[in-house]
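Good morning,

Both structures are done.
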Amino acid sequence: MTINIALIDRDIETQEFVHSYLNSQNYTCSTRLSLNTYNTSDDFFYDFPQVKPDLILLEVDLPDINGLEFSNKILTSHPDTYIVFLTSNCRNINEAFEHNISNYILKESIKADLPIVLGDVLKHLCSKIFQKVTLRTEYGPADINCEDIVLIQYVNRKPIIYLENDTINICGHSLKSIYKHLNPTQFIRPNSSTIINMKHIKSICKNTIHLYNNNQLISVSRGRYTDIRQRYIQYCLQVTNNN
C-alpha cells in the first residue's frame, strides 16, 4: 500500500529535509511513502487529479494563494485529505484549526516536529485506510470490514474469509495479495495457508494458536513462532495502552 504525500513549499532547504526524512523511513512492512514536491499551487492542482494525495504538507504563505483558501478548496471536494501547515509564525493557526487543518509545524523547529506530527498523521491514515478491503467474490466485488474478519484460510485452492457470523469465498486473489491489504499491526500469517485477526486470539502456546469461539487450532510454521509471538505481544500492549 502506498501513502501519497504532497509537499507544497518554495523553500529548497525544507524540500530537501522532508525528502531526506521520508526516504529514511520504513513505516510498516506493507506501507510505502511516496512524495511529490511542488513550488506553487498551480503546479499541484495540475497534478492533483492523478496524484490525489492522502496528506498535504502546505506552506501557508504561498505567492499565488493563501493557505486557508487553498485548504478550503481541497477539503470541499476531498474532505478526507489530511493537511499540515508549514509556517514561520502562529498568526493563522487558530483559524486554520477552525477549517479542519490536521496540524501545523513551525519551520524553525521542523527537524524536531516533523517526525512527531507526521508519525501521528500516518498512524491515523493507516488506521483509516486499513478499515476496509475490497476483494472479488463469487458474487462480484465486495467491501469487507477488516474488523469483522476472524481468519482467512486457503481451502481447495481458494481463500475463504471467516467472519464472526458468515463466510465469504474469494475469487482471483492469492492469500499473499490479500495479506498486503491488511493492517500488519492487527493481522498475522502464522503459516502459508492462514491469516488471523489478532483480536480473536485467545492464546499462543507450543506453536499453536487458540481462537475465541472457535474450536479450530491453528499451527504456527517452524521459524515463524518467535516473530508471531512478539507481534502478538505488541498488539496486546497497544490494545492495553489504547484503553
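Second structure follows.
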Amino acid sequence: MSNKTIIDDIVWPCELSLSLKKSLLSIASIKHGVTSLGGSPKHPFCSDICYLFEGVAVLCTSTPNTSTTVGGVIGPQDWIGVGSMDESDRPIYTTEEIVPVVLMAFPNKLLLNLAAQDSEVFKFLFYIAQALLKKWTQAAATVIHDKEMRIVYSLLELLVLHPKKGDVIPPIKISQQQLALLSGLSRHRVNEVLKELEIAEEIEIARGSLRIINLPKLAARLNNLNVSLRDPRQFISEY
C-alpha cells in the first residue's frame, strides 16, 4: 500500500497539510490486533495514537474507588489514544475485540518529536481529543440511566459499525459478556433486557450475535435520553 493510497484512505480528524500527513505516515506502522501494540492489560493502547482501518473493539474504563464503569465501542475510521499520552496519568481500561482489528499506530514519542518541528501536530491531536470527548462524555451520561436505556444505546452504537447490506440489517456479532462490558452492566442484567426486547419483537437473539428486527421501535426507546453530544441514530441511515 503506497503512502498516497493510505493518505486517501484515512479519514483525518481535520484539515491538515499534505506535508504533515506525509510526516505522520513516516512514523506510523500497520498493526494487526490490539495486543500487537505491546501494551499491558490495563493500558492496551500503550503509548500510541491509533487509527482503525478494520474491526470492532469494546473499551471499558472506570474511575478509582468506584464500581461504575463506562464502556465505548470503536470501529473503522475511529481515532483512539490521545488520553494516554501522559504516562503519569493514563486512564485504566480493558478492551476486547469483537471483530479482528487492523490499525495504524503513531508512537507518542515520535509524535511529540514531530510536534517540536511542526506545531500543526497539536491541531491534529486537538481534533482527535474533541471527537473522543463527545463520544465518551455521552457514554458516561448514559450510565446514569436504567439498564434498558443503556443496552439500547449500546446496541445502536454497535449497529453504526455494522452497516446495512442491501435491504437487510446485518446481525450484530457480540456476546452477552462483551455487551455487559460495553454497557457496564452484569451479564444477568444484560440477559434480562435482551429477553424483554426479544419478547417485544425488536430483536432476535442467536448464539454469539443478535439481529435488530424493528429498528424504529427500538430506536424510539432513546427518545427520553439526552443525546445532545452524540446520537447514534444520526449515523444510521435506515432510521
